[in-house]
Automatic annotation (TrEMBL):
<dbReference type="InterPro" id="IPR001638">
    <property type="entry name" value="Solute-binding_3/MltF_N"/>
</dbReference>
<comment type="similarity">
    <text>Belongs to the binding-protein-dependent transport system permease family.</text>
</comment>
<dbReference type="InterPro" id="IPR043429">
    <property type="entry name" value="ArtM/GltK/GlnP/TcyL/YhdX-like"/>
</dbReference>
<dbReference type="InterPro" id="IPR010065">
    <property type="entry name" value="AA_ABC_transptr_permease_3TM"/>
</dbReference>
<keyword id="KW-0732">Signal</keyword>
<feature type="domain" description="ABC transmembrane type-1">
    <location>
        <begin position="281"/>
        <end position="470"/>
    </location>
</feature>
<feature type="signal peptide">
    <location>
        <begin position="1"/>
        <end position="31"/>
    </location>
</feature>
<dbReference type="InterPro" id="IPR035906">
    <property type="entry name" value="MetI-like_sf"/>
</dbReference>
<dbReference type="InterPro" id="IPR000515">
    <property type="entry name" value="MetI-like"/>
</dbReference>
<dbReference type="Pfam" id="PF00497">
    <property type="entry name" value="SBP_bac_3"/>
</dbReference>
<feature type="transmembrane region" description="Helical">
    <location>
        <begin position="320"/>
        <end position="338"/>
    </location>
</feature>
<dbReference type="Pfam" id="PF00528">
    <property type="entry name" value="BPD_transp_1"/>
</dbReference>
<keyword id="KW-1133">Transmembrane helix</keyword>
<dbReference type="GO" id="GO:0015276">
    <property type="term" value="F:ligand-gated monoatomic ion channel activity"/>
</dbReference>
<keyword id="KW-0472">Membrane</keyword>
<feature type="transmembrane region" description="Helical">
    <location>
        <begin position="350"/>
        <end position="370"/>
    </location>
</feature>
<feature type="transmembrane region" description="Helical">
    <location>
        <begin position="451"/>
        <end position="473"/>
    </location>
</feature>
Length: 479
């Protein structure tokens, strides 16, 4: 019995240590001249993906041009604005460039470069709507994007004009909320809104730019000062040699982008983004397979701890299941990806953080049905085996588990389906799975409904196939 307890505990320890070691692996030596830079995914014309799925825009072109001018390399991480900010705070990323306004509150946490762009906030409404000025917003809803100067401006005038604020994580959903009539207006940075309208967004600007502010490149307070100096020097060089003006004119000029004139039908969008969608699906499938493997190991170990004749082991099992089933997956992902590095100072790759997140969350559910499957076997089976002189471990392996596994198999396949769907939440930490790929495509063409329809169909097809497999296995195990 003691050996069986030790083997369960040691197995669990080895599993967790393996993943933590992968996550805390040291950075290669060459990374000393390669900086990890976080950015948004839906903030054109400052950052968005082109048809080749490469990140472009004012921020991206500036960052790469400055890196070339100053002789360092950058690895762009499109994780979203909130995730990028948190990742820089925790040390996961070296800097963030995402149309980030320089404010006193942010200067308490970040060190900013010299301003590289000045913008203002405008209000946009439906072209034929009744709202044309701020005073008409009383009692209505206004859409804003989390963490932006537009959101700050809306909050500053909310009491004066008496409107309600609805918050979104990306620009496209904010625009859609206004276009569908759910919100009366939205507040957005002037160049971003102008670009969106140029791309075909059916909104119009009805106010002059307000709350003029400056954008800056940011690093963690007191950290990466060398990178900050290199950025400032490179920015000065680009302004002096005319490169800065060329970059801004490229995205803010009057010429309509080629993508706005391309085929916007669902078939056309599929053809244009086929490689990106395939890549996103492959990442989703790979995440699911690796996660379900580790989650199964974790779940089986914790589940077995819940049925061995030891109150201590039973208590540990119950606690682990309770904690990891109780934590929302989104919270767990952010805690592992940004929270733990803040405490330890060690970086965890996004993919590894995603696997650990799914392992704990999905593994807790697996542990619960492993316990349930074993407990569903008639208790008389174990009593009969023990009365014949079989030790607990052998009775479990030879008598109980073969019967319990037949009960568990359909649940295992169902958990595979759930894990596949749950990978979409990992887009919050920047993993380029299918959902994150959809966000990137929408950032370029602003065809939210059509792109999400394509993503939804892909998920439904795969989940339908897995559901058929589950039903087939369930029928076979009953024979």
């Amino acid at each position: 019995m003691k050996r069986s307890f030790a083997s369960v505990v040691s197995g669990l320890a080895v599993l967790i240590t393996l993943l933590v070691t992968l996550g805390f692996s040291t950075t290669p030596a060459k990374a000393t001249t390669t900086y990890q830079i976080g950015t948004d995914v839906t903030f054109p014309p400052f950052e968005f993906a082109n048809k080749q799925n490469k990140y472009v825009g004012i921020d991206m072109d500036l960052m790469r041009a400055i890196a070339k001018d100053q002789g360092f390399k950058v690895n762009i991480k499109p994780v979203g604005f909130n995730a990028a900010v948190q990742a820089v705070q925790s040390g996961q990323l070296d800097g963030v460039i995402a149309g980030m306004s320089i404010t006193k509150e942010r200067e308490a946490t970040f060190d900013f470069s010299k301003p590289y762009f000045t913008s203002g906030v405008v209000m946009a409404v439906q072209p034929k709507g009744s709202v044309t000025k701020l005073s008409q917003l009383r009692g209505k809803k206004v859409a804003v994007k989390t963490g932006t100067s537009g959101a700050d401006y809306a909050k500053s005038i909310q009491k004066k004009y008496g409107f309600k604020i609805v918050t979104f994580d990306d620009s496209n959903n904010m625009y859609e909320d206004v276009m569908t009539g759910n919100s009366a207006a939205c507040f957005e940075d002037s160049p971003v809104m102008q670009y969106g309208i140029k791309q075909g967004t059916k909104l119009k600007i009805v106010t002059k730019p307000a709350e003029s502010g400056s954008y800056g490149f940011a690093v963690q307070k007191g950290k990466n000062q060398k990178l900050l100096k290199l950025f400032n020097k490179g920015l000065a060089d680009l302004k002096a040699n005319g490169t800065y003006d060329k970059i801004t004119q490229k995205y803010l000029g009057t010429t309509k982008s080629s993508d706005s004139a391309s085929d916007r039908s669902i078939i056309g969008l599929l053809k244009q983004n086929k490689s990106a969608l395939i890549s996103g699906f492959e990442e989703t499938l790979w995440l699911t397979i690796v996660a379900i493997f580790f989650a199964t190991l974790f779940g089986v170990l914790v589940g077995l701890m819940g049925v061995v004749p030891s109150k201590f082991m039973n208590g540990v099992s119950t606690t682990l299941i309770y904690v990891f089933r109780g934590l929302p997956l989104l919270v767990l992902a952010l805690f592992i990806y940004t929270g733990i590095p803040s405490l330890t100072g060690q970086k965890i790759p996004a993919f590894v953080a995603g696997i650990i997140t799914l392992m704990f969350n999905e593994g807790a559910y697996i542990a619960a049905f492993v316990k349930g499957g074993i407990n569903a076997v008639d208790s008389g089976q174990m009593e009969a085996a023990r009365s014949l002189g079989l030790p607990f471990g052998k009775a479990m392996r030879r008598i109980i588990l073969p019967q319990g596994i037949r009960i568990m198999i359909p649940s295992f396949i169902n958990q595979f389906i759930i894990t596949l769907k749950d990978t979409s939440i990992l887009s919050i930490i920047g993993i380029l799975e299918l959902t994150q790929t959809g966000k990137i495509i929408i950032a370029r063409n602003l065809e939210g409904f059509k792109v999400w329809s394509i993503i939804a169909v892909i998920y439904l097809v795969i989940i339908t196939l897995l559901t058929w497999l589950s039903n087939w296995v369930q029928r076979r195990t009953r024979l």
